[in-house]
């Protein structure tokens, strides 16, 4: 997979018998997927997309402009990830980041490495960063006060309830606790 590609969506279940599919968009505005001239899948195949319904139903066409022939062809694409070249995306606003930029960054608390960011989760109540070992850190300015994209390092200040185990560089913060 090319390093300059950013995942923008994933193909879901077929819709009907004429080759339409449900597409789950990762874009803030799902209509943006139609504006990209070329979407690239996991296998390097190129696709274009046209929305065919308000509920995420789309028609995919291959590089030659041929739509999927039938339900069987649509079923074969279920769970296929769709990507766009990074340079086709707008630059994020200040204080905004693409998940792909954060994943793989080293997470540091003081002078202690906590591992890497392995996933960015957002279940509707605010984003969180999952670090190596399964530690989740709220993606807020208080918990992630600094992001150095060029240096590939995020600074972490974990609240007591997600500090983790003793001996991982955060024992003093955990032991201190709130004043009584």
Report the CATH topology name of the largest domain. Answer: Elongation Factor Tu (Ef-tu), domain 3
Helix segment count? 4
Which band does the percent of strand residues land in? 35-45%
Which residues sit in consecutive blocks of at least 5 with pLDDT less than 50?
Answer: 165-180
Task: Give me the CATH superfamily of the largest domain.
Answer: RimM
Largest sheet: 6 strands, antiparallel, barrel
Which CATH C-level class of the largest domain is it?
Answer: Mainly Beta
Class by SSE composition: mainly beta
Mean pLDDT: 86
Strand runs, count: 12
Number of domains: 2
Q: Categorize the overall geometry.
A: elongated
Known CATH architecture of the largest domain: Beta Barrel
Keywords: Chaperone, Cytoplasm, Ribosome biogenesis, rRNA processing
Protein name: Ribosome maturation factor RimM
Family: Belongs to the RimM family.
Pfam families: PRC_RimM, RimM
How would you describe the overall organization of this protein?
- The structure is a single chain.
- The chain folds into two domains: 5-87, Elongation Factor Tu (Ef-tu), domain 3 (Beta Barrel), CATH 2.40.30; 99-161, Roll (SH3 type barrels), CATH 2.30.30.
- It has four helices and twelve strands, in the order ββαβββαβαββββββα.
- Mean pLDDT is 86; it is low at 165-180.
- A hairpin with a 5-residue loop joins strand 4 and strand 5.
- The chain is mostly beta strands.
- The protein is 11% helix and 37% strand.
- The longest helix is centred in the C-terminal third of the chain and has 6 residues, at 171-176.
């Amino acid at each position: 997979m090319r390093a300059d590609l950013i995942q923008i969506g994933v193909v879901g279940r077929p819709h009907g018998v004429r080759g339409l599919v449900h597409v789950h968009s990762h874009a803030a505005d799902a209509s943006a997927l139609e504006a990209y001239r070329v979407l690239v899948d996991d296998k390097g195949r190129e696709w274009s997309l046209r929305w065919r319904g308000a509920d995420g139903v789309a028609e995919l066409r291959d590089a030659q402009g041929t739509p999927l022939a039938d339900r069987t062809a649509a079923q074969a694409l279920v769970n296929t990830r769709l990507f766009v070249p990074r340079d086709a995306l707008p630059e994020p606003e200040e204080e905004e980041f693409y998940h792909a930029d954060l994943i793989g960054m080293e997470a540091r608390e003081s002078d202690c490495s906590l591992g890497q960011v392995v996933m960015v989760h957002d279940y509707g109540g605010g984003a969180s960063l999952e670090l190596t070992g399964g530690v989740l850190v709220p993606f807020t300015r208080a918990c992630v006060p600094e992001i150095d994209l060029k240096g590939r390092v995020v600074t972490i200040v974990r609240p007591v309830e997600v500090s983790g185990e003793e001996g991982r560089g955060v024992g003093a913060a955990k032991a201190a606790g709130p004043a009584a």
